[in-house]
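Reproducibility note. Readers wishing to regenerate the assembly model reported in the main text can use the exact inputs given here. Chain order matters: entities are listed in the order in which they were concatenated for prediction.
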Amino acid sequence: MVRLLIALMVLAGLSLAEEVLRLGAAVSFTGKYAKEGELLRRGYELWKEKVNSMGGIKVGNKRYRVEIVYYDDQSDPKTTAKLVEKLIVEDGIKFILGPYGSAQVFAAAGIVEKHGALMVQGGGASSKIYKQGYRHIFGVFNTAPDYGRNLIDLAVTLKPEPRTVAIIYEKDIFSEDAARGALERAKEKGLKVVLFEGYPKGAQDLSSLMIKIRAKKPDVVIGAGHFRDSVLVVKQLKQFKINPKFVGLTVGPPVPAFVKALGEDAEYVFGPVQWSKAFSYKDPLFGDTRGYVEAYRKKYGEDPEYHSAGGTAAAMALQIAIERAGTLDVEKVRQELLNMKVETFYGVIGFDETGKIVTKPMAVVQIQNGKPVTVYPFREAEPVYPKPAWK
Amino acid sequence: MDTVLQLLVESLFLGTFYAFMSLGFSLTWGVLNIINLAYGSYIILGAYLAYTLHIYLGLDPVLSLPLSFTGGFLLGLFFQRFLMNRVMNLEPFMVLILTFGLDIFIANALNLIFRADIRSIDVPYAERSHLLGPLIITEVKALVFVLSLILTALVYLLLHRTWTGRAIRAVALDREGARTVGVSPEKIFLITSGIGTGIALASGNLYGVLQGFTPFDGGMLTVKAFLVSIVGGLGRVESAVAGGLFLGVLEVFTGFYLGEGWKFFASLIVMFLFLILRPRGLLGGKYYGET
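Running the prediction on these inputs yields the following structure tokens for the assembly.
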């Protein structure tokens, strides 16, 4: 059993008389999520340093210096559950920062709820987490339906206005949720949905769907699936000479591998992302989004991605709730999280009664010259629309 | 109308590929009386071979077709000589178990080497297509269609115009009879197994061009080859063509009108119906030897 106690007390130059508030996190440092886990940890660490440099968390009249106890969940949800239990039961920690990955978050959530602790997480985007009736789980990642919604939200702002949309999706929970999000929003916005159809998991030939799309000539094509599906959809759209004005894919475009896999054909494809450094919001700790990006760059030598930003945002939401509650009582802190509506570098953070964030849009990126650039809701560059025909 | 025409073209292209793909399966079944459950994995093996040659040598999968066939031929000889010969004369059940084990072995070996990620052979013409009136013809599908047609014709000629082909059919018809006229069934078994496996690996090249694949796709392909053989009837190249086209039409039309998810299900239903109502298939005939 390899359990790495990664970070212990970082003794910043603070007086020893100060009290310490310990938070716990089981994050993947090894296994398939090792990279994302490390990015998440960086987000937590950046927040911790910032808070401690400002004198710590203020609870009532006392100030607490923050410490975070990390364990490595090895990217395995079962291990996450065990480690979170250890954090709560053995280490006596009441406030948990979330792990990375929907399955890990889901596993942790059950344990946190059972022991009446509180978790704020920026690592899981599955809607399932919020459908269990849990009261002590909060998350700052937009859930699956938002992946579809924000693509439609962007599409309808573009001129000439699109009128018809075709939505195709892989039949798994995440993709179907995303597709339904797009479907509902398209109907709300008065778009005509000419095709809404799923295909089996792992399908490698979408010819029959392509023939349908080709016959309907939609202005907008939304594809909800996993990375491979996104690549396949682009290839087959091109193969069938289908040239919609707008191609949006729920997963893929923000990842460098997408451009690598498709080369020039990746150009002008749209895709949603949880957060982008092009956001522009005020922030109580870092001044604004730009301040956050600079602080991150200074500490780690590279620009933050949404994994790190989600971590920082989750920790910050917890901090603000504790400070507003003026106590370390879990129920009161929970109440403050429910009441919260605060602008941060990450966007406006506010939760519905199930604990999921409802106050922030996702960003939408478009591939331009081989790079994803943010075009919604803030514009790093003007979106290219209508999309030129395939080369 | 345009749509139906388009679907018919798609069916024809896909069906011809299925016909060629299933020839090896139907041949080994008809001549050696072996139902090779590892057949689909042979095809996937061919796809990975073409993939590897494409990645490391830049060899177009069409150019590596002869290599795949030769590799498959040798592999077929090897399997026949060292594995199948040992169990062929025992209960038929033993052959099933052996090929089933072989299927699992190949799939997992591929998984060890290539991992479970979906691979595809990205030829430069992969996304090219041409408009033909209201129709759209994708280049890879047309290419696979033409190649399948040529190769199927070659197998036909081999079986009907060469001494070896006639010997294969003779053995299929009557092993002992063939022996009395100087044909060694053992030798013919070897050759047939080689040709069958060669066809499987060669069709793997084409499969890899058509769509992405993973090490575990073999099972489904075996079922398809099985279905083609059942529907067409075992025993002739023409039967495989009939079965292949039937499966092509079935898949394309159910995929379009009922949804992608129904394709496989519909194939299985049809297979059951054939087994119950017309077990000798559309064209009848049981042996490659019957004319």
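We highlight two features of this model. The interface with chain A takes residues 2-3, 6-7, 10, 118, 120, 126-129, 131, 136, 138, 210-214, 252, 255-256, 259-261 of chain B (CB under 8 Å). The CA atoms of residues 81 and 190 of chain B lie 7 Å apart.
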